[in-house]
Amino acid sequence: MSFNIVNTTKEAIMKIFFVARTFPLLALSLFMTFTVLAACQSSQPQVSIDKAKAELSPAIVGEAMVTMNIRNQGGSDVLTGVKTDIPGAKVLFHIMQGERMQSVDTVEVPAKSDLEFKMGGSHIMIQDMPKTMKAGSKFNVTLVFQKSGEKQLSLTLQGAGAMPMGHEHHM
What percent of the chain has pLDDT over 70? Predict the structure, then answer.
């Protein structure tokens, strides 16, 4: 049996160079593909707020409802809190669960979505406001998002309108 070590070594070296050139390109291609897919899946949220309005409760003295539209043109986020500069006031998220109003700690903000906080639906409730708060009073509400950070709204309290559906439990 004759064995040509020179040809075998040349072949091995050629195979090593081929693999070294091929795998880095394959690895780079896979890396780029996974990076693009991950970016599409976990893009940063792009949250904006419009049509924010605060209105005194027609049923309870010292309460007000904040309504608004939350538009998210990016990835998902979570509304984790809400604050106000009204002394002594408590602020709550109220969402509709079927026919009942439910107080919750957080509100999911899905990717590429519009959330409407409105009368008779999901909204922010401000309770225990001082008697000095009346129609025309100015105050701030700060929405706290898990990824988007804080968004401050400057509002003017409007007079009480008709009682929204679902708030009969306050009476």
Answer: 70
What single-letter amino acid sits at 39? A
Contact between 92 and 127 (Cβ < 8 Å): yes
**CATH class held by domain 47-161:** mainly beta
Q: Can you tell me the distance from the alpha carbon of 93 to that of 33, in angstroms, rounded to the nearest whole number?
A: 40
Alpha-carbon distances, residue 159 vs 17, 26, 168 (angstroms): 79, 65, 19
In 3D, which of 55, 49, 48 has the Cα closest to residue 126? 55
pLDDT digits (tens, 9 = 90+) for 100-140: 888 999 999 999 999 999 988 899 999 999 999 999 999 99
3-state secondary structure 82-141: EEECCCCCEEEEEEEECCEEEEECCEEECCCEEEEECCCCCEEEEECCCCCCCCCCEEEE
Question: Distance (Å, rounded) from C-alpha 70 to C-alpha 48?
Answer: 6
The pLDDT tens digits for 142-162 are 999 999 999 999 999 999 875
Q: Give dist(CA 80, CA 104) in Å, integer.
A: 10
Q: pTM (2 decimals)?
A: 0.70
